[in-house]
């Protein structure tokens, strides 16, 4: 479990380089980042370390994780020096945490904010939803000189993609079930916390559709919450998911006097938690049992992709975390006597840029040609059913697999409200509460205050010329013609 205090300029400036010296076995992580110095010293490294505590406390492996500038926005400038230190890290059992920290729970008003992507609930919502998605600078990362094109480009892409996206949503009932499922997960989490004698209000904030994160934060203010845990429903961290959501929170909290004093703990990733790993292994084991010859089934992990530049240039830890996650799940299955072959591929790529490989559609064809007859698809980066599972995997990829020679197809459902999974999330929340710290009250980043109108006009002029040239390049024209956007 990775938890961090929320600070005005720090959490979206990761550029992580995850060291492979962390032992490849099941471990729990506890991150503590207390950025009390605010935004005035944004170029200084954080004085507090990220602490990773292995479940095997006698390990001597250490690694230094360093980072700088993940987000396009000028606010995220801090360089984080993050050190794993197994000798210092502490893994506390949920029961002990509850006893030691919450005997005074009646005096506090605890809140848990679940963050998710969101999705269009009707076909009329599809185009504005896509606009919100592509207007996010963490989704389309434009050079600083071209940032003024973010919204016009988002408008163009959303209009071009809307017809095809509407077809997809129409095929799964006319809208995304993500909000309904996330609401159910919120209710289940609240009840799981109640069972641990932790009384908390659980809120849902979506990044690109209703209820937006801003709406959830307003309700948190109205309820006068005194301590908040932020739990993104993405097991693995990525710039484009957790990073983008946290960036929004930082902006909102920085500008509000009440929120800037609110103790907050952020769980940045939780793919390595034992409850999550066991829940995924349970689902896989159950689905394997439905095949006539379970031992011959290939386990096919399909994760949502990200552009390669996020990993290679911005240091997004998503690829490393995904590979570690697969390793931990397969180790759990092996402990149960399940030694099936497995592979990992990435789906849902868009645009003309290179995304993480191998691609799901290409791998399906290859393994079919190699004679694999039975395949179990596992949507590894999703905890709720939505368009990527219900339409892309269940329809497009299943059809492609059967065409490629695979005869027996199965698919592991998303975790949803799986009881072990929800209980583990409740444990993560309880463990994160003690690290909650108030964020800085600083209001402006130094770079943002040094605004030069003449420089802005010059950048706008030359940026417009460059954008015009880029839009006329054959590669971009071909991309639009082929509907890649």
TrEMBL record:
It is an enzyme of class 4 (lyase). Gene3D superfamilies: 3.40.50.1400. The chain crosses the membrane at residues 460-480. Pathway: Porphyrin-containing compound metabolism; protoheme biosynthesis; protoheme from protoporphyrin-IX: step 1/1. HAMAP family: Ferrochelatase (MF_00323). PANTHER family: FERROCHELATASE, FERROCHELATASE-1, CHLOROPLASTIC_MITOCHONDRIAL. Catalyzes the ferrous insertion into protoporphyrin IX. This is Ferrochelatase.
């Amino acid at each position: 479990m990775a938890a961090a205090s929320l600070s005005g300029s720090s959490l979206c400036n990761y550029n992580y380089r995850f060291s492979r010296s962390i032992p490849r076995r099941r471990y729990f992580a506890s991150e503590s980042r207390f950025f009390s110095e605010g935004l005035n010293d944004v170029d200084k490294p954080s004085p507090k370390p990220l602490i990773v505590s292995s479940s095997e406390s006698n390990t001597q492996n250490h690694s230094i994780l360093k980072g700088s500038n993940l987000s396009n926005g000028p606010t995220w400038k801090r360089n984080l020096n993050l050190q794993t230190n197994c000798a210092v890290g502490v893994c506390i059992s949920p029961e002990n945490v509850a006893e030691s920290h919450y005997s005074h729970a009646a005096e506090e008003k605890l809140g848990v904010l679940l963050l998710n992507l969101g999705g269009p609930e009707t076909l009329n919502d599809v185009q504005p939803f896509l606009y919100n998605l592509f207007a996010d600078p963490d989704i389309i990362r434009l050079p600083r000189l071209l940032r003024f094109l973010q919204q016009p480009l988002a408008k163009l892409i959303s209009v071009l993609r809307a017809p095809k996206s509407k077809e997809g949503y129409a095929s799964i009932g006319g809208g995304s079930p993500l909000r309904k499922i996330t609401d159910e997960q919120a209710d289940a989490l609240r009840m799981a916390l109640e069972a641990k004698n932790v009384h908390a209000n659980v809120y849902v904030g979506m990044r690109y559709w209703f209820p937006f994160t801003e709406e959830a934060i307003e309700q948190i203010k109205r309820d006068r919450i005194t301590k908040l845990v932020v739990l993104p429903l993405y097991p693995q961290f990525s710039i484009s998911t957790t990073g983008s959501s946290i960036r929004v929170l930082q902006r909102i909290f920085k500008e509000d006097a009440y929120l800037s004093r609110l103790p907050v703990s952020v769980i940045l990733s939780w793919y390595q938690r034992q409850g999550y790993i066991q829940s995924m292994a349970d689902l896989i084991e159950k689905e394997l049992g439905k095949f006539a010859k379970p031992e011959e089934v290939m386990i096919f992990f399909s994760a949502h992709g990200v552009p390669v530049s996020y990993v290679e240039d911005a240091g997004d830890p998503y690829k490393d975390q995904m590979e570690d996650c697969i390793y931990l799940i397969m180790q759990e299955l092996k402990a149960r006597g399940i030694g099936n072959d497995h592979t990992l591929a990435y789906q849902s790529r868009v645009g003309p840029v290179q995304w993480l490989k191998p691609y799901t559609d290409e791998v399906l064809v290859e393994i079919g040609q190699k004679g694999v007859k039975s395949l179990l698809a596992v949507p590894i980066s999703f905890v709720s059913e939505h368009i990527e599972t219900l339409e892309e995997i269940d329809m497009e990829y299943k059809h492609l697999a059967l065409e490629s020679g695979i005869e027996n197809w199965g698919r592991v459902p998303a975790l949803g409200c799986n009881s072990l999974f929800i209980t583990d999330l409740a444990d993560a929340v309880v463990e994160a509460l003690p690290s909650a710290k108030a964020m800085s009250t600083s209001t402006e980043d130094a770079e943002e205050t040094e605004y030069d109108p003449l420089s802005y006009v010059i950048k706008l002029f030359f940026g417009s010329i460059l954008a015009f040239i880029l839009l006329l390049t054959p590669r971009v024209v071909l991309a639009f013609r082929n509907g890649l956007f």
